[in-house]
Amino acid sequence: MMNNVTDSEEGEGGPNSQGDANPKESSPFINSTAATDVEKSQQYDGKSMALFEEEMDTSPMVSSLLSTLANYSNLPTGSKEHEEAENNEEGPRPSKKPVKAPQLGTLMGVYLPCIQNIFGVILFLRMTWMVGIGGVFGSFIIVFMCCSTTMLTAISMSAIATNGVVPAGGSYYMISRSLGPEFGGAVGICFYLGTTFAGAMYILGCIEILLIYIVPQAAIFKLEGLEGADAEIALLNNMRVYGTIVLSLMALVVFVGVKYVNKLALVFLACVIFSILAVYAGVIKTALEPPTFPVCLLGNRTLISKGYDVCAKVIEIDNETVTTKLWSSFCDSDSLNATCDEYFINNNVTEIQGIPGVTSGILAENLFGYYLEKGMILEKRGVSSTVDPDSPTTNSNRYVLADITSFFTLLVGIYFPSVTGIMAGSNRSGDLRDAQKSIPIGTIAAITTTSTVYMSCVVLFGACIEGVVLRDKFGEGVNGNLVIGTLAWPSPWVIVFGSFFSTCGAGLQSLTGAPRLLQAISRDGIIPFLRVFGHGKANGEPTWALLLTASICEIGIIIASLDSVAPILSMFFLMCYMFVNLACALQTLLRTPNWRPRFKFYHWALSFLGMSLCLSLMFICSWYYAIVAMGIATCIYKYIEFCGAEKEWGDGIRGISLSAARFALMRLEEGPPHTKNWRPQILVLVSVDATQNVEQPRLLSLTNQLKAGKGLTIVGTTVQGTFLGNYTDAQKADQSLRKLMETEKVKGFSQVVISSNLRDGTSHLVQVGGLGGLKHNTVMVSWPSNWKQPEYYQQFRNFIEVVRETTLASLALLVPKNISSYPSNGERFTEGHIDVWWIVHDGGMLMLLPFLLRQHKVWRKCKMRIFTVAQLDDNSIQMKKDLIMFLYHLRLDAVVEVVEMLDGDISAYTYEKTLVMEQRTQILKQMHLTKNEMEREIQSITDSSRGSIRRKNPPTLQPQHKAEGGDAVAEKPEDKSEAVSNQKQVQLIHSKNASTPTSPTSPTPPAEPPAGGAAAWTDSKGADKGRTLSPSAPAEAGKDLFSMRPEWENLNQIDVRRMHTAVRLNEVITKKSKEAKLVLLNMPGPPKNRTNQTIPMHNAVYRDYPVFTDIQVMIFLGFGCLLAFFRFYGFGGMVFNFLTATFAIQWAILVQGYFQFYHDGKIYLGVINLINAEFACAVVLISFGAVLGKTSPLQLLVMALLEVPVFAVTEWVVLSYLKINDAGGSILIHLFACYFGLGVTFVLHRPSLNEGHAKENSSYHSDILSVMGTLFLWVFWPSFNSALTFKGDDQHRAILHTFIGLSASTITAFALSTLLNKDGKLTMADVQNVTLAGGVTVGASVDMMISPAAAYVLGMLGCTACMLGYKYLSPFLAKRCRIQDQCGIHNLHGLTGLISCAAGIWAILVADEEVYGPSLYEIFAHRAPVEGDPQLEKLQMLIPGLKPGLGRTAQEQALFQVAAVFSTVGLAALGGLLTGFVLRLPYFAPPSDDLCFDDRLFFEVPQDYDSPLQVNNIMMEDTSA
Q1: Are 1233 and 1178 contacting, i.e. CB atoms less than 8 angstroms apart?
Q2: For residues 474 and 480, is the Cβ–Cβ distance under 8 A?
Q3: Which of 304, 858, 867, 1110 could form a disulfide with 1279 if both were Cys (CB 3.0 to 4.6 A apart)?
Q4: What is the pTM of this model?
């Protein structure tokens, strides 16, 4: 077996090899050929693994894989394929030299190459200048940021490099295999450009050292005598000329032989190391003996050393004062009387030591930055000078000047290239003995070493070198020496030559590495136009790539400034490092199973920090360079994406796409989309033929025209059969769908379902299409063709079931008719109309469809027309104005027309069509079909789709004036239609008189029959398409309709009217939209239930009757028992309550019915009427409490007779005109009842009762009975308050608030009762009445969002007011105001009612949309926007069924509440007074004062009914005795 593996490895690169785009294995054995496959499979014959012999074709044995896996090639994914592809192109080679195993370790393979690439030109040429300009602190921050960035990047790179087999190819392979071909190509190009510009930077550094420090005389463009810009241009031109020459020489060396470059690498590395050691040696020497490098200052200005011979103005020679060269530079002659520069005269010349040494303390002076503008003179800090601010600076060429304007971000951009080169080790991973161990250790050690050197150099330079020397970029003040060279030991030339050779070597390395990187990118094939650069010489050297690299490098040479080129390559390297960190962070966060690095010291936060640092440094260095670099990367990314890179490297971007998709799907699950974001997400149902080809390809054309690549599109079909038997057919069907979608440019997904029958398969697609929140909301299915023919009848039955299922699922349904005649995507309409027949409101679907279609080039030139149907009672002119305004708000441009379709006589044609339908139903019954089959069959006769779009060919249409013309037009082959409906907005009705299942056999009209209609697409007796009715039809149509045929008399008249509407509507549409290219219209869906029978549980009685029974208990038991608290008036309290309540309810039904439920001469009754009547009865019973025991039964009946109408009128006025919120009846029930009763008792005042009555007291048993009434009222009070609130959240809140209020008042009542009692005992009157106060106080705001705490506070306030009223207010009213309130209704209902009204007004004032949301306009219906307000339309989309309001503000509604309180109190008091005067008439037999509160006057009472009183008298007599 080992021999076979070896053979297969030797055969790599043969004709059977395959690249990335194809499967890697053509057999179950890795790296095997067809011949060896047979041999290997034979090895398993007769073995003990026969159990798995059938799996050998696809799954090889583990033993055959281990050797290959252990010796897996360390070439990156795709590299081996590139080599094999080249072998295939160039033909077989005679022999190949055996490849030596990699032998490099960590030191030679990673550490030293990284050291060589990191240390470079910036350290030698710009580091001292950076320290002088930025200061030690600023420079240290720059170095620390840059080194931290590379260290974090190295950690991320180590994690990637140790994750499996290390890719040979550096950061490009790391990123491309981690982030995908798009990011890989973009970053690879950036890395290539960075490496190329790095070569230019190294060459420019080399030329700068050559021309400035080694052989300045070699300059072609001489600098002597030039100043300012001229000198700068001459220097740059020299750089360009020599740079081009050096670049050509280096490119020639690389072209001739890379092996020479590699051999010289160690020499160049030695130069770098010796140069750095010389610097450290020089620092040590300065501590012992500082070198002599004097700097001459004039005042505080630094002088150019070549401008003087002696740092003095004059010298003494033989006792004679002689001027120096410096004097001549600033004066017009050598004489002492010469005219000199004013600054020269006023300031002295001093000489300072340029290298004072590490112990000199110069560090303190160099701590902080000293940024200069271009052309500024270098001045020494701390030295004063005399300057005339008004005199201009002269002889500036004698001073050392700043060549560029410096600032912090510039220093960052210039310095960052000195920390690049960290990829050198990973680039050589193919040559490492153990790459997974060497790369992390070597790279991090190299970065640590170089970072230490850089940071120490910043401090040492600032501690050893004078500030003016540090800021002297080119050493003009120190005899033209390299500044860092002045510090070196034993000689500055060590640094000069060391840096020269190191820059030469770095430039050669860049010119060697960049072409190979470009070659690797080109060979990957992800950027097509770069493929030519993948070829090279016979030995594989990238010739064309080298030529392109040299050309790009020449661009950097032409720039010529090292300071300008450095930020450019910083951008590209930073972008490369940023994506390395991004790759590591993504792989870590996504937790992909393949992510298992051996390097464990990484974390996503570190990678994210590194990425953030890279991005920050990009914009810190140069924001415009950063934008350009990102623009280049973006363009490359989009180009690769556009060209469709067919590479699958298991990248992390696909993983993040999956994570983002999962996150987005989870967000979509949080709630339905907002109306503004709604668009059709279409499930297209197509059918396939026997060869699995799509039968309706134009459905996808229409889909493309509707969608234009936006939103979700799912194309689904069903293959009949079983999954095991028809899986191949399903794959073919899926391929057919994908191919057609690509042809029609439909962006979406295909889905194929295998099912035992087509009906179930389609149902499964409708149910399970989509994923999570990304599901279809619209279904498109073609109108079934040839549906009238028996062999196609099942197809139409399936279609009807789709209609039903989409209705149930609340999905929109689009049904194109004659889809084969629809335009393809290549056609164009130069003119024409798209007609919209807007019959019923569908949520705006019909308006949206033409807008979407007109976005496509096919329909762009078509204009939109909107038709709506008006009935006899409609105002057509106003309808047109309203529709125009509606379209204006929708920002749609359309022509509007209102069509008047009057109800005419039902034609004979309609009766015939209905008769055919009924006869078909009877035939189905005789066929003994099952119930479901019968329902489907019946429904399929005349069920129409829920909307249609028709496209007509005008030349082929003939005018139709007969009733049957509409049918003929509807069935012509050239007609095109599409059914459209939004199921969420369509409300359907059905026949309540249907006694047989035949009632759902026709289309049901919308909820408003006059505005609805449906075109009947049927034909007489199964006629073929295009065929018109027989000649007898017009004759029958002309008959007298009153002489109806006998068989017509038994027809279901509801079906006849539906058919009549369909026929008339079809005629109107045919007439008006004759020339239209497309017609869209609503059509009704199927009935809500398939049997068209009412579901009993949907009756309102099941919702309202429980509340009714609760209020019944309160009226008859609660009030009855509560009013029986008088000792001798128990019968009267309960029985008169029974009598009065029964009478009041009956009377209220009539009175309220007249005001509220009266229509067409009838009062309509229902449970809700009874509930309202019981509320009126409660008003009477509360008022009854004020006169309890002082009135006769006749008086009570008369009071109820008069109070109910007054209450009904008050209720009607307050609700109809003031339009208030009073869910719990605090205003209309409690306040009215209280002040009406007080008005009555005021008139019926009995002076003899002011001091009380002997029988006006309770007993032990009467109090128990009264407490039972309190308990009944307490338990059922939540039903009383919530009875008429909105079902759902409002009713829920009402119940909770009432219970909380009652609980609070009960607890408070017990507490206050003991506090206010002298003996600290409970009083039964408090328990019976005050405990109920909380139910009243929460009444006005019971359904509002007042919070449970507020409800609790209201309960406590109501209880307190009620308790104090009983204690102090009731006696005051009786003595001072002639108001004898027997039951204290003013305390329990009046005071608490006023508190409740105040709380309700406060709740209205603070209510806003932030708290309530859109439901604010349901609770406060009168605050809803008025009719026609655009805000109302938006709210109705959120809350379907929301009615227009009055547009009131919160303040306005509160004022109306106040007005309602005063109006109710006033009307109640007035009505009570008038009623009291009526009751005072002697005809109503009021009881005498002695017989008040006594049952004997009206009842047959037991003999011992007054026994408690007798016992009490006996006990009193005994006591007196």
Answers
A1: yes
A2: yes
A3: 1110
A4: 0.54
